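RETRY 2/3 - previous attempt timed out on the joint model. Re-submitting the same 258-residue input unchanged.
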Amino acid sequence: MMPQMDTGELHALLAWQVELGATEAIGDTPINRYASPMRLEAAAPAPAEPAPAEEVDPVAVATEAAAGARDLAGLSAAMAAFTHCELKRGAQNTVFADGNPAARVMVIGEAPGREEDLAGRPFVGAAGRLLDRMFAAIGLDRTAEDAAQALYITNVLPWRPPQNRDPDPDEIAMLLPFLRRHVELAQPEVLVCMGNISCLALFGRKGVTRLRGRWAEVLGRPALPMFHPAYLLRTPAAKREAWADLLSLQARLREGQR
Ligand code: URA
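RETRY 2/3 succeeded.
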């Protein structure tokens, strides 16, 4: 409580303050210095709280960015501009695709390796050279201009995982909207899913050893799971099954031509 003073005492107090040099009022509103600190705090404006970091849902961001892409060039740019995947930080390039986008067959691999990361194109290393030979055996070539002989190649992930580790489920989930849109825009007749990560992304499960060779419908079109060429390099005995799958693909394409 402010002690009660009469007019004489107030004048004396004022004169004493003027003598001390306090000749100017520093605020428009008086401050009650006798109030308890609690009450002073309550009267003072609360210090501004730092704004909470905005929660970002990378899958939602990717879905919106992918949906906004009107063509493959737009999609490639949208992927390159996507900043929510940590893999991008360690990558030299965003590896989008290679081959002829008009091809009847779209091959979906896992992720760029070291050579692909440096070149900015999928499947250019040892596994890629085997992939080229495999498809050449049934008359398909990524450099062909004629869609009937051509091949279009991409990966589930456009950025190389460090030490070529398996991508984690979150990484796959946030890049899947781009892959879906990629297929939608390229409109291949059939998909070839190479290896476990491609199967996980598109079929929802790994286990290419069981899945391979069995056609299924994925993203509204026939899809054939196959062994990954990197696996075939390590396990040449599995080339027999890979050859059977290539013949199945060739037969399917011939059927579609009739
Ligand atoms: N393995 C893949 O799955 N993709 C590439 O681009 C290279 C190697």
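The CA atoms of residues 229 and 235 lie 9 Å apart. Closing ticket.
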